[in-house]
Amino acid sequence: MSFPGIPGAGSVPGGSDVAGMSQQEQQIVKAMQATMESCAGKTVISGGMGFAFGGLFGLFMSSMSYDTPLSAQGQQLTNLPLRQQLRHGFRDMGSRSYSSAKNFGLIGAIFAGTECCIESYRAKSDWKNGVSAGCITGGTLGAKAGPQAAAVGCVGFAAFSAAIDAFMRRQTD
Questions:
Q1: Is the pLDDT of residue 16 over 60?
Q2: What integer pLDDT is reported at residue 156 of this predicted model?
Q3: Please, what's the b/e burial string for 50-88 (b: 16 or more CB within 10 A of its CB; e: otherwise)?
Q4: Is the pLDDT of residue 67 over 70?
Q5: How far from chain centre, in Å, is Cα 32?
Q6: In the 8-state DSSP scheme, what is residue 69?
Q7: What is the 3-state secondary structure (H, E, C) of 84-149?
Q8: Fewer CB in a 10 Å sphere around the end CB: N or C, the chain?
């Protein structure tokens, strides 16, 4: 695989180093490149990766909610037998992880698909694609709560996308 700034001998126009690969491996590399260049492929991969990351994030965050028995929920749990405490904790961690995974997967899929479609339509790769996709993603997610929430979601996601784009596109010396 070729990384930016690291030249690879035997590179193909997709940026992959195919020197020493068999014909079958080269075909697999080309298929993976074609998948990543299609909007549907980017959407599915981003949604899947968002789902996986969201699950891990939800697992971590849910494990943090049981760190003190001083809360009302903690008091109720400490009165239960150990086996029921563990069952309740794992069940809650699983449901929170799944909920977080669904949300992150949805955000990743909407954003990546929208950005790819905008980039394909405009035939340009610049910061405006990410900002527009962020606005559409935030507005779509906030639409259920009403027009004000959709507007706030649009502005929030667009600003976050602009900040990430500015960071990722900055020149490194």
A1: no
A2: 96
A3: bbeebbebbbeebeeebeeeeeeeeeebeeeeeeeeeee
A4: no
A5: 19
A6: T
A7: HHHHHHHHHHHHHHHHHHHHHHHHHHHHHHHHHHHHHHHCCCCHHHHHHHHHHHHHHHHHHHCHHH
A8: C
Name 119's Cβ contacts closer than 8 Å, sequence gap at least 6: 125, 129
One-letter amino acid of 56: L
8 Å CB contact between 64 and 34? no
- In this structure, what token pair is assigned to residue 151? 């507007």
In angstroms, the CA 91 to CA 70 distance is 21
Amino acid identity of residue 148, one-letter, is: Q
Do 93 and 59 touch, CB atoms closer than 8 A? yes
pLDDT band at 10 (very low <50, low <70, confident <90, very high): very low
